[in-house]
Design goal:
By secondary structure, the protein is α/β, with parallel strands linked by helices. It has eight helices and twelve strands. The longest helix is centred in the N-terminal third of the chain and has 14 residues.
């Protein structure tokens, strides 16, 4: 079995399978974006496959029976490759994708299609101190907002300087507590938060803190899922795996 990982859900699934199905040979694949990932039990693979064709060949060569794509909700390219490769190699595939944070009445969310749209929203808001919780690839879109002071939070320092002049880099690894996030936002005087609609408990603290402080949240919308079966939690993924194993 292959798990496309890099998320807390992938790690939890690999751990549960090691406990409940020790005879199942599980390989977890990581993209290699984070230098010091939390490693799951079982076999670990790091790096790309060479697109959908390369992944399909790997599935065939390794005689993989099941594929669970538990990559990040915004890993749209990898999700598409997984769907295409599984179809080509005739391997059952499941997409495990965490649910979105539930929107509450007091939330001040402004949805944006992508980072460029989010930057345009910020310009319209007139925000002066902004908390960015995005990856390196999205940051360049905010480089033109010269009157805005940005604080960018990442797990690890990027290899290249931030593409936003004067931006402050804050290094931290979740999970993030809502109370601590509120303190952080107060201390920095943030008047807006920009984030992806990633969902999940580990990063929900910033959403709860922004609500408590009545801060606007510019929320970059998720890309659409590829066609095929998908579930929202570990239990459902385990049930899918169990049902498929019974047919082998």
């Amino acid at each position: 079995m292959l798990i496309l990982g890099g998320t807390g859900e992938a790690l939890a699934l690999a751990r549960l399978l090691a406990q409940q199905r020790p005879c199942l040979a599980v390989t977890t694949s990581l993209a290699g974006v984070t230098g010091s990932p939390v490693t799951p039990p079982g076999r670990l693979r790091s790096g790309g496959f060479g697109g959908a064709e390369g992944l399909a060949a790997w599935l065939t060569d390794e005689r993989v029976d099941l594929l669970v794509d538990a990559t990040h909700p915004f890993a749209a390219t990898m999700a598409g490759h997984a769907a295409a490769a599984a179809a080509r190699a005739d391997v059952p595939r499941l997409k495990l994708v965490r649910p979105m944070w539930p929107r509450q009445e007091d939330d001040r969310w402004i949805m944006a299609e992508d980072a460029s749209a989010a930057a345009a929203v910020l310009a319209g808001l007139g925000a002066r101190r902004v908390f960015l919780t995005l990856g390196t690839r999205e940051l360049a879109a905010f480089g033109g907002l010269g009157d805005t002071a940005f604080t960018v939070r990442m797990i690890e320092a990027p290899a290249e300087p931030l593409p936003i002049a004067g931006a402050r880099l804050l290094l931290a690894r979740g999970p993030y507590d809502a109370a601590a996030e509120e303190v952080l936002m107060r201390e920095h005087g943030f008047d807006a938060l920009v984030t992806k609609a990633s969902g999940g408990a580990a990063t929900r603290g910033k959403i709860d803190a922004a609500r408590a402080l009545s801060l606007p949240v510019v929320m970059i919308a998720r890309p659409p899922l590829p066609p095929g079966e998908h579930v929202a939690d570990i239990d459902a993924a385990l049930a899918w795996i169990t049902a498929r194993l019974e047919r082998i």
